[in-house]
Amino acid sequence: MPEAGAPFRIESTEHTGITVSSLDDALSFWSGVMGFEHLYTWDFDDSSFLGELVGVKTAAARIAMVKGPGHLIELLEYRSPDDRRVLKPRSCDIGSVHVAFRVENLDALLMRARAAGWKAVSKVQTVESGERTGLRLVYVRGPDGLTVEFLEYPKDLLAATP
Prior knowledge:
The chain is of the alpha+beta class. It has helices at 23-33, 48-54, 106-115, 155-158, and strands at residues 15-19, 37-44, 60-68, 71-80, 98-102, 119-120, 125-126, 136-141, 147-152.
């Protein structure tokens, strides 16, 4: 076993995993609305592999991977154990996580997301001063409580942004 001080390197971000109530509904949003490519779906029955990996005995799930620009999203629909809970934390609650996407034509995307049952938590906000002046952004929450952030950079700021 390597020592605690041994050097290491993070090579890249692999994916973001999101637990959902319905894999079919989630795929409809991520592929249909967001335009991500559905790469595959795996079915894990109650297996020691999945249970050991996630630290939940008797875990069984259907898992799908979708690919968007520069990032993978793993969607997980657990079928067991029976004592699963639905948590819908607010953005200020400890443990809340969001995924942010830089988009083009924010208003069109918001209309499509709204039609799929996702709701903006506020009106679109626009940065009015500083180095990000003109940036438009909004948090959108899905039926399962997942929050995503959409950011639309103005053309002049986009040219100077990595």
